[in-house]
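Researcher: Please predict.
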Amino acid sequence: MSGTEGGGIVLASYGRGALVQTGNGALHCGLMGRKLRLVCGDRVRWRHLPAADAPSVESVEARRNVIERIDARGRAEPVAANIDRLAIVIAPEPAPDWFLVDRYWAGARLLDIATILIVNKQDLGLDSIEPQLAIYRVLQLPCHTVACHSGSGIDELRHMLEGAITLFVGQSGVGKSSIVNALAPEAAAQTAALTRDAEGRHTTTTARWYALGADAAIIDAPGVRDFAPPAHIVRAAERGFVEIHAASVHCRFNDCRHFDEPGCSVRAEVAAQRISARRYESYRRLARLYEDLAR
């Protein structure tokens, strides 16, 4: 007796279970085998045997990409898979952590994932953050401002997100969930289903998938206080910073770390104020983190 089976997308993953979107709605599924690990955005195959209380995910398709962060022990921890775009959300309040923004953008660049910067709460005024926004605009990072309470910029943002899977990330309190609810009004209703596991327990610390029309979706990741992309790529820190990577080709030494080596073109560009001193310090912090983990 084979039972019923099919494919689907993981809307939320919680321990040894997952909520899977199928052609007939969402299913709470267990996981078959101890080694199977899922993350929001995974494409999976599931089966419901006649004698089983609930369906089980049997396998997961190869991922196109996966956004990961380094956990407290330096290990790679997946956040979401198979995404087309990273949306970094900031706001005037709470004050932006620009180093966190840099690390998110670096992580996306290492995977060749398109990135946008969404500035929420524009009604509070942007004067305090405009100098940093100007730096990102010069570096060709698209910046889009919205105000959820008034709805300003929401329709334009919805149009920008068409036809793609977008992962929303950022600090707690910047209003990511408010933007999600403004973009997809049905998300508020979906949240209740997505934040409870099969036993009815709340699981609010996992990334959650929300449909945005027929050909797009938003993945809302939990708010964080820190983030660092895993260093899978040689000289990952440098490659994550577009302006530093571009300047590095003119350094005297091919293995220049851009710290205190002679003939460093990156430091020369910083001294000439053609590279932001804050962005350079952000690069140094990430590079040192990777060196510490390597040791």
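Model: The longest strand covers residues 4-14.
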